[in-house]
Design brief:
Pfam families: T6SS_VasE
InterPro entries: T6SS_TssK
CATH architecture of the largest domain: Sandwich
Shape: elongated
Largest sheet: 5 strands, antiparallel
Number of domains: 3
């Protein structure tokens, strides 16, 4: 027999309570079916509060709760409902405790008229004075109403006769015999903004990490640096990704409702987009699975990955080094990071108001490079400086500069080693190069 079939109403039928009960079951089933289609993860808590003081007495007490069971039954626990509490046996450890109600079965009595009469009845009968809201002058009448019989059970006590929704995991007892609750456990949640469990802490952490990375990248990508093309396009793209998700997660913090699945989905998309910059595979190696009944296992790995990803400081693929004009044809460039000597290839870009072929030919002959403490001797004694060679192609990390001729340095020899120790490179330029412009870069990830 299908216990959810619709009642056929016809003229002259003899009405019995079963007619209304069956019609109620049919309508409830329709409502649940529509809810399940609208949201596959519709069960869980939109509000949840436990009496933490009761842990010292070995009791779990539910003070406030609101949500849905997996069969679609909604429930509310507040000051108007009887206390929902459970004394936890001494030997219990590493076990879930949660709210439970009897399952909906058409062949079983669903109503208990006296307290404790039938523990598997879904409803306990209560009497309440109800006012006729059409005409309140008619007074009120006493009606028998059914209150959902919500109780707390351990997971080991739950069988096929109950719908069960866990609220906490009991780890055991402490030295004072008080209950120890697993603070990492996250019960099935519908609105983590209101429930304020670890999911909200995860969201706050994500916003803080993103905000810090936005500040860090923004400092490195100053407006002038962007205009001069001297900052990494990679970091600009990363900042764009982070800005997008920072705005979204910040919105969640200011909202009053959000389901964990949406947070999980966007968190994983953020990590997958960040993998473009941080992973050799350019994507997450393995996607996480969303488990509404085990939110801790779903979110904890993603938060670990997010923390690692957003604490990585990407180095620019190149550093811009400025040649400062000291007069009399002398220019000096100073490295701020001596590690670049071993980690980078040094490229000089030169532009002048003259044919590029002529510039490519004459510049190396009239430019002398060397450590700043040796440049005077190199010039006066007409000794060779650090060798520079013209290159047709520059590393792809560098920005394109129209009209520039490029040179690379021979990164060996005594002069280069002196430069490696001091970090200061001098350039003496003889001859005339009208409209001279120079860009000097240290390109990282050099293969040596």
């Amino acid at each position: 027999m299908n216990s959810f079939d619709k009642v056929i109403w016809s003229e002259g039928m003899f009405l019995r309570p079963q007619h209304f009960q069956q019609q109620e079951r049919y309508l409830e089933r329709q409502l649940v079916a529509r809810s399940q289609q609208a949201d596959h993860y519709f069960w869980g808590f939109s509000e949840l509060q436990l009496d933490t003081e009761g842990f010292a007495q070995g009791r779990v007490t539910l003070t406030r709760a609101k949500g849905f069971f997996k069969d679609g039954t909604s429930f509310v626990v507040d000051e108007s409902t009887p206390p929902v509490s459970l004394a936890i046996p001494q030997a219990v450890s590493n076990e879930l405790v949660g709210v439970a109600i009897p399952t909906r079965q058409a062949s079983r009595q669903q109503v208990a008229f006296e307290e404790g009469e039938d523990l598997l009845a879904r409803y306990a009968v209560t009497e309440q004075e109800i006012v006729d809201t059409t005409d309140t002058t008619l007074g009120s009448v006493n009606l028998q109403l059914g209150r959902l019989q919500i109780r707390l059970l351990l997971a080991s006590q739950v069988d096929a006769n109950y719908e069960f929704l866990p609220i906490a995991r009991i780890k055991g007892r402490d030295s004072k015999n008080a209950l120890v609750i697993d603070t990492a456990y996250i019960p099935p949640t519908l609105n983590f903004i209101e429930v304020k469990n670890n999911l909200l802490s995860f969201l706050v952490t994500a916003v803080d990490l993103l905000n810090e990375q936005v500040k860090r990248l923004s400092r490195r990508l100053s407006a002038s640096a962007i205009q001069n093309g001297s900052s990494s396009l990679t970091q600009m793209m990363m900042l764009s990704v982070i800005n997008r998700y920072h705005a979204y997660f910040h919105h969640l913090l200011s909202s009053n409702y959000h389901h964990p699945e949406g947070f999980f989905c966007n968190l994983q998309m953020l990590l997958n987009e960040m993998a473009v910059f941080l992973s050799e595979q350019r994507a997450m190696e393995q996607f996480a699975h969303y488990d509404h009944d085990d939110l801790q296992a779903s979110f904890a790995p993603l938060m670990g990955q997010l923390n690692a990803a957003l604490n990585i400081v990407l180095d620019d693929p190149y550093e811009v080094i400025e040649f400062v004009d000291k007069g009399h044809g002398l220019r000096v460039a100073q490295l701020t990071d001596l590690n670049l000597i071993k980690q980078a290839e040094f490229i000089l870009g030169v532009k002048a108001d003259m044919p590029m072929d002529s510039l490519r030919k004459h510049f190396p002959a009239q430019a002398k490079f060397g450590p700043v403490e040796r440049i005077r001797d190199l010039v006066h004694l007409q000794l060779p400086g650090v060798n520079v060679q013209s290159v047709e192609q520059i590393p792809p990390q560098l920005p394109y500069h129209s009209g520039y001729v490029y040179f690379t340095f021979q990164q060996s020899g005594d002069l280069w080693q002196q430069f490696a120790r001091s970090g200061v490179l001098a350039l003496h330029l003889a001859g005339e190069f009208p409209g001279l412009e120079m860009e000097f870069w240290a390109v990282r990830n050099k293969n040596r």
